[in-house]
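User: I'm preparing a small set of examples for a lab meeting where we compare how different chains pack in three dimensions. I only have the primary sequence for this one, and I'd like the structure in token form so I can line it up with the others. Please keep the answer compact; I'll paste it straight into my notes.
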Amino acid sequence: MTKAFTTSLIGISGILVTPFDDRDRIAPARLRPVIDRAVAAGVHILVSNGNTGEFYSLTIDEALEMVAATADLVAGRAPLVGGAGRSVTEACALARASARAGCAAVMMHQPPDPFVSPRGVVDYARRVADAADGLPVVLYIRNDGIGAATFAALSEIPQVVGVKWATPNPMKLVDAMAASDPRLIWVGGLAEVWAPALCAVGARGFTSGLINVWPARSVAIHAALERQDYAEARRLIDGMRAFEDVRAEEMGGANVSGVKTALKLQGIDCGAARPPAAWPLTDGQTGRIADILKAAG
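Assistant: Understood. Below is the structure token output for the 297-residue chain.
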């Protein structure tokens, strides 16, 4: 299973939204059409409790419920990855829950504590890996300042099979790859817009929140990169860049809001984005997303 999963990592890791109802309660059933569409389009991996899933706005009980409910909705049609993070105790609980739900792997969020030491990240990762009951672990790295020696130590944890690289520093990615066990799979963690640059230095897969709204476009971009047709990949990215531009506004606070607004415009109501996200979007932002969807057919 581990080998099959690591092969999938070079594809698209689609980060699912977390739906809420009109009383701000999680509403997993609203994900069904999003998941069905992503699976039909050929998205390689789905992720529950990722950042597009508003992981840090969820209570631990909500996150535990979401991974179990999402696994039921996916029903084995694609590998599902469960996000694990926050306090090390909560992260271990989520890793265990992901294993119980039948996930293919655990994605370890980088610890959010303001006083994170490089060796502390390694200790944190070891505890999450131990709790994952043998599942592969993918590391989500948003701070490349932890250093090459730390990446080398992280790569020595047997269950760690990949790294989701979410910083816009391709050359630091090169250094981290050189310091680490060559068996690791490196995934571009900054979605489609950064996928060509990170792919060029060795991160073949990429993450995507766009798959909630337009999975066929994500799959087409990935296919172009796999055949090293960078011109086609750039053309396809240019056709969705305006959507990512809206998501990047308000210090990135429009990220999930942009996805949920687009879904609602498509007739798939996944509710509001919780604070501190920017919700609702402005009329101008919503209009630009409507224009993107119309242009895309």
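A couple of notes for your slides: The chain has two domains: 2-228, 239-297. The mean pLDDT is 97.

User: Perfect, thanks.
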